[in-house]
Amino acid sequence: MVTLEKHISCLAVVLLSYLVLLFTKCANGIDCFKCVSMNGANKACDDPFHNNYSTAILESPCMGGRKGRDGLFPATSCIKIAGYYDDTGETITVRGCALDSGTLTTDTEIIRMSHCGRFFYDDRYVHGCLQSCNDADACNRSPRATGDPHRVQGLLQLAAASLVLGYVLLNRQHLLGVGS
């Protein structure tokens, strides 16, 4: 015979599974602008940045390398480097993408923390800022994983049907007048 505890356990598993599916969103990587501008040679890449809804420099999804691995992987963050070379004063703007390689410290993962100052890039010292973002495609506003009202309504209907079915199963002998 099905006990109330078993029915509640089954119902809890079904509801939890549905909730996980309800709020889970597949991640295929982030879209990022990819370009380089030296001394303002690529105006489309320089600041102030005007996308104007062009896909010419937008990589979708943006792919990046991981430390210690061959190949490219879907990126988790967009990056922008803007500054000037210490030795020549040439300006540089680089837009691209990267992903966390899984090391334990933030100083070896450029996407974990934006920072400004001096850093080594392309075998030269640059004075400027390295910024990263992962909150949206192309670092603009992105849709968040939110519940669809129809899915929420379906969840409530599923819960109600499960409760009614459980009640009927647990009380079927009493309801049918059998075994009294």
From TrEMBL:
The keyword Signal applies. Keywords: Signal. Residues 1-29 form the signal peptide. It comes from the Eukaryota. This is Protein sleepless.
